[in-house]
User: Which sequence fits this backbone?
């Protein structure tokens, strides 16, 4: 006599079996027809197995829970996190029909769709969920004149390069170092107190844990603007010159030990603060007395001013009562043209407005209609600004 009694697995066993299926399908080759048939059979075993499929959909919606199956080499790898979010979105689209059909569809159809969802996610995992090494994003990054570029680093941090800028990324297992070689960059730092994030700009250094800030290399200074969290500013101290050593003619010459650069803290900045400090090197023997002279300005910015100074991140230049000379200097950073103020009397005119990066003609139209300033093209790369001449009567 055939028994119609089925041995039901407990919940822990069903969960373990579901995970085993994911691990089993986590490979480069697609599942065979036999494997698909076995998975369908497993899913059709009981309503508890089908419920586990729905639970897995919620499970995958939480990226942090992925550590139950895979332990990344480090936390918050950008590619790993972004891929997880994409897979979660795909899974929701696959699971939704299952929820709608659950009450009316035959068990076999429901199980087949559930199995297809699991197979699709497992295949995506096999191709994508391999976190990169800490050094995966190391290297040189450059933006062209007029270009804004966004970079995802291996730790999950984001960098925005402003026009004509350059950074060198050097990540290791116990350090996150970036050198700003030219221009300006904004850093949105992934939080990790055990993995310091340091940005070096000439002889200055900005240190953060989990925060957001911009660093700009000016001709004589380094400017830092903080729009989230807190950072420490420091100057890089050159080692003091090695003293001459007395040499005993009877002994071997002694070489002085190599001396490393160190840093001297200048200040700390919080949300809404900006500072400029000198680019020059501070000799070690005078570091304590020179630190205060290194800091040129320290300001607290109201929210509108903070947004104005970081408007370049959205592709705009915003001026509010700036002198024409400073406006022209800023616009020149974003174009291969060279704009000159031909009439010195115009240099101190105060200019305000919001301009799209790269739209020179729109900027010149505003200068003409609002300030009576005329732009004249003298060559392919030079533009002169002069006062508009009054028409003769």
Assistant:
């Amino acid at each position: 006599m055939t028994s119609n009694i089925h041995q039901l697995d407990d919940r822990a066993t069903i969960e373990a079996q579901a995970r085993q299926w994911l691990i089993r399908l986590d490979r480069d080759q697609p599942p065979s027809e036999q494997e698909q048939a076995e998975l369908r059979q497993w899913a059709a075993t009981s309503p508890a197995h089908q419920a586990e499929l729905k639970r897995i959909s919620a499970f995958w919606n939480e990226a942090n829970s992925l550590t139950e199956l895979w332990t990344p080499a480090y936390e918050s790898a950008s590619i790993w996190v972004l891929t997880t979010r994409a897979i979660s979105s795909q899974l929701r689209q696959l699971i939704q029909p299952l929820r709608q059909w659950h009450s009316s569809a035959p068990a076999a159809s429901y199980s087949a769709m559930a199995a297809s969802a699991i197979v699709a996610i497992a295949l995506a995992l096999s191709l994508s969920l391999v976190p990169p090494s800490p050094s995966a994003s190391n290297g040189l990054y450059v933006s062209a004149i007029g270009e804004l570029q966004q970079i995802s680093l291996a730790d999950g941090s984001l960098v925005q390069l402003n026009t004509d800028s350059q950074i060198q990324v050097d990540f290791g297992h116990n350090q996150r170092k970036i050198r700003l070689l030219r221009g300006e960059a904004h850093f949105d730092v992934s939080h990790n107190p055990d993995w310091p994030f340091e940005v070096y700009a000439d002889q200055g250094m900005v240190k953060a844990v989990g925060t957001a800030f911009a660093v700009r290399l000016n001709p004589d200074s380094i400017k830092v603007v903080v729009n989230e969290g807190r950072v420490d500013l420091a100057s890089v101290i050159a080692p003091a010159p090695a003293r001459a050593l007395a040499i005993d003619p009877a002994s071997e010459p002694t070489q002085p030990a190599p001396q490393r650069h160190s840093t001297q803290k200048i200040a700390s900045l919080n949300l809404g603060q900006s500072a400029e400090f000198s680019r020059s090197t501070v000799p070690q023997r005078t570091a304590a007395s020179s630190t205060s002279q290194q800091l040129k300005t320290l300001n607290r910015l109201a929210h509108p001013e903070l947004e104005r100074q970081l408007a370049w991140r959205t592709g705009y230049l915003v001026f509010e009562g700036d002198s024409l000379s400073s406006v022209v200097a800023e616009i020149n950073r974003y174009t291969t043209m060279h704009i000159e103020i031909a009439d010195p009397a115009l240099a101190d005119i105060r200019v305000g407005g919001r301009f799209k990066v790269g739209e020179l003609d729109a900027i010149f139209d505003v200068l003409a209609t609002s300030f009576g300033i005329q732009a004249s093209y003298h060559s392919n790369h030079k533009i002169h600004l002069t006062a508009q001449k009054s028409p003769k009567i």
